[in-house]
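Shipment paperwork, digital attachment
Item: protein structure file
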Amino acid sequence: MPEIILKNVTKTFDHINAVDHLNLTIRDRDFITLLGPSGCGKTTTLRMIAGLETPTEGEILIDGKTVFSAEKGIDVPPQKRNVGFLFQNYALWPHMTVLQNITFGLENLKWDKDKIRQRTEKLMKMLKIEEYGNRYPAELSGGQQQRVAIARTLATGPRILLMDEPLSNLDAKLRMEMRSELKRLHLDTDSTFVYVTHDQLEAMTLATKISLMKKGKLQQFAPPLTVYNEPANAFTADFIGNPSINLIPVKVEEKRENTLVLDMGSHKIRFTSKGNADTRQGDILTLGIRPENIEITDEGGMEAKVYSTLPSGMETVVKLETASLILTAVVFGDSDFRINDTVKIRFRSNRNHLFRKEGDQERIASGSLQSL
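Attachment content:
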């Protein structure tokens, strides 16, 4: 199985870098999600791996073989890269049956009829579409069409499957089901998956590693829980997680070894970092607190007023007003609160973060919080 390596890959459109000196190593059998807001370069990256887009600079290697090099003038065509590409709109032939759609590529490759039949039966059974062989795409639901598109893409045995937001046309319930199927499929096929999405929940639940991009630049490349618990910068912390992380401007009022006293305006809190925070007295920073790390309890040391509540049964999202701040908290279970009630809060976990206020806003420390 192949490894995909991107070295300083850049793609420029009209003097703007859609992808900016991207360095990425996708290991054999990884399930990688390319994640980020619209226009960040994730689909362009996928298309460059596939050979559907030509990089302006850089080098791409698949399974140790250079498939693109600007310096050496190498550009291997898509059909010779041994990758399968699954499009957002499925791109099934409307005049062909399910069976004909799946076997089309194998027949073009002049496979033996018995081999085609065996391969097709195996894929249709794996994807649970055996009973739809004689139907046309228009007679199938969105989820069924998606399975046919996957079967057709896998038929020729590509070692790499590239997917561009393949679930975006499905409703929420079907998307959840298909996520489970894709994760199982990744295990069964023993292939390398590269998957484009703007949905952070999809990225978190599917991937072995997330490649988070912003304006063509890689922000962080790590396993999902690492990205969530150890964000590289404020953008990463804000993009990953629902509800979003609370980002609060603070001033360092006092520093003693690994302990900082932070001024939040009308409140002061003690931040105890896991290591020595690279900051000094007077610095303006951004404090990041995940909503689940704000606990509403009578034992809390800070008062807040309930601004709004959004109960959903499994959890309740509570907006809390304290001085000039609006904080988001998550209370697990079927609890609810009355708007304008005064409650007490405290901070839990040692996974609260401090970020630089300027530049790339990188994370400089993680630690625990205590109201003063």
